[in-house]
Design brief:
alpha/beta; TIM Barrel; 3 domains; eight-stranded parallel beta barrel; three-stranded antiparallel beta sheet; 18 helices
């Protein structure tokens, strides 16, 4: 690697899977590895071939593929005590994985040496040196992860340094300082990294955890003191509160610190990679993630939005497009006229800053928010509100009547909805059954309108959320319903509010259909 380059070592497929709720099949792991390779990380750690058959299979499949940017790494530990590395089955599996890189961890902290390994300080050093030397003899690039490096150094600096020097002497290509417990402060990380950098000749890496919320900060502190490899996971997956989050670390290194790491052109794929891996892991993306989250460049306060409209940099630390994100303007009871103008423009609605309708639109939004509506997550309903206020919506249909009923016994039930609609001088009257009253109403409503608007055949409801707004009133509480709809190409969100959950659902359903017809 070129001098000055900060290498990105991704351990999403190994350390990341130790996080609660994170699991990948072999096929999943290959998909993630391929996407990370195209994105351009320098290393992809595929797993621990000594721990489970799934990881062994992953390495078999990975060996058959050609990788564009990333080196695939297998992970394992030093040999067992009192066993030669060449005779240790776990070390042999690391060779059998046929990866160009092998990463092993060993003990730095005497607490672990004596109480966990139950061996002597000298034998621990021998375990480190023997394993690295054996792997190097077999042609592998070896990264040595010094587990509990920072806690071990704080406890006994002399012994910690002895373990790191043993790894270097045995041929380690990197000595990586691990904040395994995740409880070290940036100032401590910086000081220890500087000491290691002064006494070791081999490159230094950093591996941090986020137990006190400083995983990224600690990684950057180490880079400032000479670390040239950063280990972490996409979206911060990992045990307990997670690992160093690479979706924050990568842009910070490249854009804020000005260091060479990932090419800036590839950073435009960062949000896409983040969302892809969440999707494969079957996890809901964290909207509040720095850089890549849905709210990372969202503006809500009226004064803030007014300033952003004039000079974006006044409330944005960078252009959101550099990491594949986008500016979002939120409209709520905190909104000002600039919120409405910018949000309308974002949705393709032309409106001037001095439009006379703005005052009425803003008043209507605030009145509706007071009643319980939430337009931050219901942009379809907001677009209809704005267009109606501007006189740019011709009603596509009228709902003349509806009826919903449910009948059944302890074992079975049937929900039925009847809907009558009018389009121009024609009407339609349909009945439909559903899995519940809302599903039945949805089916009946779209069945009634499909004859007039065939495009609705592609529309379906994909999510339905209910929130009780004033729970102290019990079953008479006001209900907010948020609906997600799709036509197979786009997704949109609509909202309804009423004390009657059916009526609230109907409002959201009507907005959903009207918005799709408006889009046509």
């Amino acid at each position: 690697m070129s001098k000055g380059l900060i290498e990105i070592y991704d351990t999403t497929l190994r350390d990341g899977t130790q996080g609660e709720g994170v699991s990948f099949s072999v096929a999943d792991k290959l998909r993630v590895a391929e996407r990370l390779d195209v994105f351009g990380v320098h290393y992809v750690e595929g797993g621990w071939p000594g721990s489970n058959p799934k990881d062994i299979e992953f390495f078999k499949q990975a060996a058959k593929r050609k990788w564009k940017h990333a080196q695939i790494a297998a992970f394992g530990s030093t040999r067992r005590k009192k066993v030669k590395a060449k005779d240790d089955p776990q070390v042999k599996l690391l060779i059998d994985a046929k990866t160009p890189v092998v990463t092993i961890f060993g003990k730095t902290w005497l607490l672990h040496v004596k109480e966990v390994l139950r061996t002597t300080p000298d034998e621990n050093i021998a375990m480190i040196a023997d394993t690295i030397a054996f792997l190097k003899k077999n042609g592998r690039k070896v990264i040595y992860d010094a587990e509990h490096a920072l806690d071990g150094f704080k406890d006994d600096p002399e012994y910690a340094m002895a373990t790191w020097k043993a790894a270097e002497a045995a041929g380690a290509d990197f000595v990586v300082l691990c904040d395994t417990n995740g409880g070290t402060l940036p100032s401590e990380v910086a000081a220890i990294t500087a000491t290691a950098r002064a006494q070791l000749s081999c490159p230094i890496g950093i591996h941090t955890h986020n137990d006190i919320g400083l995983g990224v900060a600690n990684a950057l502190a180490a880079v400032e003191q000479g670390a040239t490899q950063v280990q972490g996971t996409i979206n911060g997956y990992g045990e307990r509160t997670g690992n160093c989050n690479l979706t924050s670390t990568i842009p910070n290194i490249t854009l804020k610190m000005g260091r060479r790491s990932m090419p800036k052109a590839r950073l435009k794929k960062l949000r896409e990679v983040s969302r892809f891996i969440d999707e494969v892991a079957n996890l809901v993306p964290d909207r509040h993630q720095p850089w890549v989250g849905g709210t990372a460049f969202a503006h809500k306060g009226g004064m803030h939005v007014n300033a952003v409209q004039k000079v974006a940099a006044s409330f944005e630390h960078t252009n959101p497009e550099v990491v594949g994100n986008a500016r979002r303007i939120l409209v709520s009871d905190l909104a000002g006229r600039s919120n409405i103008v910018m949000k309308a423009q974002e949705m393709g609605i032309r409106i001037a800053n001095d439009a006379p309708e703005l005052k009425g639109i803003l008043a209507r939004v605030k009145e509706q928010e007071h009643l319980g509506y939430d337009y931050e997550g219901a942009e379809g309903s907001l677009a209809l509100l704005i267009r109606k206020a501007l006189g740019r919506v011709e009603p596509a249909f009228d709902l003349e009547a509806y009826h919903v009923s449910m009948r059944g016994d302890a074992a079975n039930h049937v929900c039925e909805a009847t809907v009558k609609v009018r389009v121009g001088d024609k009407s339609a009257h349909t009945v439909a059954n559903g899995d519940g009253p809302v599903n039945a109403l949805d089916q009946a409503l779209r069945n009634a309108l499909r004859g007039f608007y065939p495009v609705l055949k592609q529309v379906r409801l994909t999510d339905y959320k209910v929130r009780i707004l004033n729970s102290t009133t019990g079953t008479a509480a006001k209900t907010r319903v948020l609906i997600e709809s799709t036509d197979g190409k786009d997704r949109w969100y609509t909202v309804g509010v009423n004390e009657n959950i059916i009526e609230a659902s109907l409002q959201a359903l009507l907005d959903s259909i009207e918005f799709r017809l408006l889009k046509k």
